[in-house]
Amino acid sequence: MSCSRITSSVYLLTLASLLQTAFGAEPLFRTCSNTGNFSAGSPYEANLKQLTEYLSNQAPPSWFGLRSIGQNPNQAYGLALCRGDVRSADCKTCVVEAGNEIRKRCPYKKGAIIWYDYCLLKHSNMEFFGKIDNQIAIYLWNPNNASGEMEVYGAVKIYGLTQCTQDLSSSDCKKCLDGIIEQLPRCCDKKEGGRVIGPSCNFRFERYRFVNT
């Protein structure tokens, strides 16, 4: 199950949707910003399409892409982040899928973010590079409760993953991760696994191996 915090609003997702994390299925979550709208055929739409195409090519080699296209008032800023353990081909597929899906789910919105299990894609008409974005936190948790043995003795192996967008400094990355790790008790206390996902960083732990090694 999951929930997300967007200022004072709370959103709930069904367990069925959370299980569909493969390409072509439902994303983990998406949010459409209120920074403005654009019209079909506008310069902003053209810049956004060019930006998404650029990020889908830039992200796979290093699992991260960052770029702005155009000039104000039609400048579009964007980033793509792939999980560091996924193949380059899967990274590209995920970013392309995210670009197609975000246009369907946030039509004509100048700003939006979409998360998949393998990647996230963010675009905006507002410059955000190098800044921690903690306006939204998505909580996902394993429905199984941790056993007393796991809680008290730590006898079970736990797998974990943390990641920041690469435009953050090392100190801001740590600050971002500290912030989301502090939120784990709200969503994942006494659970066998869980994660907190934000626009700038994410943290996940599970009892099973979920990373590709």
From TrEMBL:
Pinpoint the Gnk2-homologous domain residues.
26-128
Q: Where in the cell is it found?
A: Secreted
Q: Which GO terms describe its cellular component?
A: extracellular region
- Keyword set includes Glycoprotein: yes
- Membership in a protein family: Belongs to the cysteine-rich repeat secretory protein family.
Domain of life, per UniProt, equals Eukaryota
Name of the protein described by the UniProt record: Gnk2-homologous domain-containing protein
Principal location listed in the UniProt entry: secreted
Point out the signal peptide segment: 1-24
Q: Which UniProt keywords apply?
A: Glycoprotein, Repeat, Secreted, Signal
Q: Pfam families from the entry?
A: Stress-antifung (PF01657)
Looking up PANTHER family in the UniProt record yields: CYSTEINE-RICH REPEAT SECRETORY PROTEIN 38, CYSTEINE-RICH REPEAT SECRETORY PROTEIN 38-RELATED
Species annotation: Gossypium mustelinum
